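User: Continuing from earlier, I have the next pair ready.

Assistant: Great, send them over.

User: Here they are, in order.

Assistant: Folding the first of the pair now:
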Amino acid sequence: MNDYSVAPEFGEQAVAARAGAWLKRKAPYLIVLGLAIFGVAYTSLAQQPLYGYWEFLGVAIGVACVAIGWRQAPDRQARFILARTQALHWAAFLVAMNIVLWPSVNSFLNAPATGLALLLLLALGTFVAGIQVSFDIAVLGLAMAVAVPAIAWFKQSALFLILAVIVLGALAAAFWRHGGEAST
């Protein structure tokens, strides 16, 4: 073996194993992010909000916050305070989300705007809960918040992006065909 060989802990298998372990640890957060983006997409396509869906996500994230914080709490009193604080926190955000869904308020928003507003409220609630409970929860809230303008940009730019993909595909097909003729 020469001096330039890669140590086993830095090999491709080790990197793949670390990436797999990281993905396994972060899977619940990625699933919640995917579910939140799905909610916005469904609301945009169906032109109506999913009334129980957003409440479910809020409650699920609230339960996750309590479960994560429960393991970190030093004693019974700290656990009680954590559970009470998170219950009040998420109740306030669920009330705000339901206010957005009231017909008298929702009539001012179209379906895509309603989905983005609900995602933004969920992102804010998740980020604030994460500050109190877990860095990973706070990062999930930030990812949801970043998804709001990203979704809006994608929706506005979708036609341009589709045209760009078609043009790139046509160019690739032309060069591929031209390259095949040159080698014969």
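And the other member of the pair:
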Amino acid sequence: MLVFFRRGLFVIALLVISSCNFETKKISSEEVLELESKTLNWKEVDEYPAFEDCQNETELLAARECFEREVAENIYAYLSKQQPVVTESIDDTLYLYLEINSAGRPEIDSVKIDSTLNNQLPELRMWLDQSIDSLPKIYPASKRGVPISTVFKMPIVIKAE
């Protein structure tokens, strides 16, 4: 009787195992990448671009503020060395769109300059380009460990008398 019970149990186990329909679908790495890229928010970064001085910042907001402060200080230091001659006093704000590409190279994406400011300081765009070229080494932003390009909108106050 015990033999029949064991054989019966064995037959039942075989039927249960063979009746399960395991179906797997092989997904290519390209499909996984496409699905993941659709779900990621590419407007947010895991790490902001950083200068050497800002790399120890672990909080995202503090890292961004440190980076923007360093850029602004470098631009203002460069612009303060210039000796423009103006016919009227200037107190205006321009908007600099600064791109840091995935290699960490800074470039001016665009600049919104008021026409009055542009007429008073025609060399301003050249000075901004030179100030950006003189920035120290920048480590690019990253998303999931992959370096990515980012663009920052930075207000720059221009005052001259």
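Worth noting for the second one:
The mean pLDDT is 81. The first strand starts at residue 90 and ends at 100.
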